[in-house]
Amino acid sequence: MGIGVLRASPNRGQVRSRRLRSAGVGPAGLDPGSPRRPSIAPKKKRAAQRPCAQGAGGALSFRPPKETGLITSALLNTIPNNHHGFGTAAELVPAVLQPVWDERPNKRQVHGTRAVHIVEVRQPVGDADAFHTATPGIPVSVITADCVPLLLARRDGGHVAAVHAGWRGLYDGIIGQTLAQLGGGDWVAAIGPAICAACYEVGAELADSFVQRFGAAIVPTYRHLDLRALAQRQLEEGGVAAIEHVGGCTHCARADDGSFLFRSYRRGDRNSQQHAGLFIHHDH
Ligand SMILES: [Zn+2]
Asked: How many whole angstroms from 155 Cα to the centroid of ligand 1?
């Protein structure tokens, strides 16, 4: 399935907008057991052999901690009363989330822009791609394999959020919409393992759409989208001053033994993807 299905027409803008929404190539997010939906679209021609480019925050001379394998954000670790983690191929659900994992919302990620306030355990939320809670003991999390997993915490530790941001969610403004719902305050954010711009080649029309909406910096080389850079920009525009990039490229980052560190939709992982999430301690 190609992304480059957009064609010129007299009302090009409207066509583009509609086609982008219906292109069916949105990334990520299947919770295990949810209906199969496409993630970031596989491309027939891959750029997989190129070295991974630096993300916006310069994330990528990356190695996971050898002892635990746990990927965490030093920035989020400064927030009181929170536990968080980014999953990997070896640990799809970060162990730190296991004590509260059964309490997570019952969700289905659909590459939309809906954010949901989580107020009870195992809350049924339906289709949504961003989740936030001020209730201790309930994890908010997202599942990704190439899309951007984004974890946020208010600096006082009293409110946390998780956002699934693939190209479609970013294009449609999920980060801004989530931040608006969070209602201000001093927030910090960690942008987790996601496909790098070098690995993420898309169709020319889609790339053009991103250039037109967000400027050339988001497409650093021809037809390659920098999702991390766009996520960072949208966080900054939403007033999040403290942002950290963690983890590597889900598509090309490898462990010392040569195995891939993350699940990657574009590399072929469909029904087994990593989770990223966080929760507030009960004693908060
Ligand atoms: Zn890469």
From this structure: 31
Closest CA to 5 of 246, 172, 204: 204
Q: What's the pLDDT tens digit per position in 25-79?
A: 333 333 333 333 444 444 444 333 333 333 333 334 455 555 446 799 999 999 9
Neighbours of 231 (CB within 10 A): 29
d(CA 151, CA 261): 20
Q: Compute the distance from residue 111 Cα to the ligand 1 centre, in Å.
A: 21
**Which residue in 2, 52, 51, 50 sits closest to 25, CA to CA?**
2
Q: Which domains does the chain have, with CATH numbers?
A: 12-280 (3.60.140.10)
Beta-bridged to residue 280, according to DSSP, are: 82
pLDDT digits (tens, 9 = 90+) for 242-252: 999 999 999 99
Expressed in angstroms and rounded, the spacing between residue 146 Cα and the centre of ligand 1 is 9
Taking the model in full, what pTM does it have? 0.79
Give me ligand 1 centre to Cα 136, in Å: 36
Distance 30 CA to ligand 1 centre (A): 21
